[in-house]
Amino acid sequence: MNLSTNSNINKAEAIIRFDGVTKQYESDPAVLKDVSFEIERGKFYTLLGPSGCGKTTILRLIAGFTAPTKGSIYFNGQMINHIPANKRQVNTVFQDYALFPHLNVFENIAFGLRIKKMKQAEIKEKVQEALRFVNLSGYENREITEMSGGQRQRVAIARAIVNRPEIILLDEPLSALDLKLRTEMQVELRELQRRLGITFIFVTHDQEEALAMSDEIFVLSEGRIQQSGTPMDIYDEPINRFVADFIGESNIVDGRMKADYVVEFAGKSFECVDKGLQPNEPIDIVIRPEDLEITRPEDGKMQVRVETQLFRGVHFEIQCADEAGNKWLVHSTRKAEVGETIGLTFDPEAIHVMRFNETEEEFDRRLESYS
Ligand SMILES: Nc1ncnc2c1ncn2[C@@H]1O[C@H](COP(=O)(O)OP(=O)(O)OP(=O)(O)O)[C@@H](O)[C@H]1O
Ligand SMILES: [Mg+2]
Q1: What pLDDT does 12 receive?
Q2: Which CATH superfamily is domain 249-370 in?
Q3: Do 127 and 162 form a contact (C-beta atoms < 8 A)?
Q4: pTM for this structure?
Q5: Tell me: the pLDDT tens digits for 225-273?
Q6: Which residue among 30, 41, 128, 276 is least crowded, i.e. fewest CB within 10 A of its CB?
Q7: Radius of gyration of the chain, Cα coordinates, nearest whole angstrom
Q8: What dotted CATH number matches 14-236?
Q9: Which atom of ligand 1 is nearest to the CA of 25?
Q10: Hey, do 14-236 and 249-370 end up sharing a CATH topology, with the first three levels equal?
């Protein structure tokens, strides 16, 4: 037997695959439109997008709480469209935790194991192990009503991991927590996922949370995946206006591709790293605020007038306008004066060129051709 070939096969197999999945509730327009993606085993995935874009619907389809209208869902290579929820190796942590208020911590976590008629000694061992994982050893006999929000959150996670499912789905599990606890739980959850090695699919509409926690992010809008990739891929190379605007702060302006490596915006031509577009093709340009550097007016690639300035602790947030009327947000450790004219400079790599209606495959191929 050829071992290397064998391990390649294992590596390539997706734990979840959506193939052209459409979901439509009654006569309403489709909530998910021909969605295809793959989830690899053991990674932390995040579904990110605004309210109503279909994040929870994707989780419900994976869990088996609802079925696709069209298309197929595969689990370890097997079509599972018609497999009921209780036969799937998937557990869900809901936004409101859905704990049983009349049961104590131990019984909340043991609930699913009791339904499976597991022996008491085994239940005890598993519950205690799950509690250790979420740092709640010793809390077995506490009532749920005597636990804080963060502790309830951990109980809900312990209940999801107790039977070691292959996938855990987490639907905005941190949204009820205050900012400090939320940040702590982000670190804990990420650490827990690494230790367990279980595939996590996490839902949030908070872009910073998605960037901080994920191996892979799917950015969703209006029932479609706009872009998928690592946090750095998506932050550094957004595919379109929606993604650029949704992920981080961006300067997005209209431009034109004059020729290979030359782009025009704000009434001027600039050197860029992009090629292979049509001459004079209209495009969107993105430059991140931290990629703009303040200079003396005569040393800048652009001259802009400072409109507002806010001190944000680490940097100043400076809002400027150029003569063509474009607004430019700058993050700088240098202070400017409101009303003064300053220069802005940036590297050719800081200019991100986005074509209209480019598919993810075309986009990826274009970026690969640059390197
Ligand atoms: N059972 C249902 N029947 C009819 N429409 C539904 C049903 N469930 C969800 N929808 C609709 O599907 C769309 C997507 O809903 P979904 O819950 O997936 O959004 P979401 O991305 O999770 O949003 P949020 O961030 O607000 O939780 C919404 O327009 C919603 O109204
Ligand atoms: Mg939702």
Answers
A1: 59
A2: Nucleic acid-binding proteins (2.40.50.140)
A3: yes
A4: 0.89
A5: 999 999 999 999 999 999 999 998 999 999 999 999 999 999 999 999 9
A6: 276
A7: 25
A8: 3.40.50.300
A9: 4
A10: no
